[in-house]
Amino acid sequence: MRVGDVAIGGRKVVMMAGPCSVESPDQLLATARAVQEAGAVILRGGAFKPRTSPYSFRGLKEDGLRMLADVKRETGMPIVTEAMDTRHLDAVCAHADMIQIGSRNMQNYTLLEEVGRLRKPILLKRGLSATVEEFLFAAEYVASGGNDKIVLCERGIRTFETSTRNTLDLSAVPVLKKLSHLPVIVDPSHGTGIWWLVPLLARAAVAVGADGLLVEVHAEPGKALSDGDQSLRPDKFAAMMADLRPVALATGREI
Ligand code: PEP
Ligand code: MN
Question: Which residues span the domain enclosing 178?
Answer without folding.
Answer: 12-250
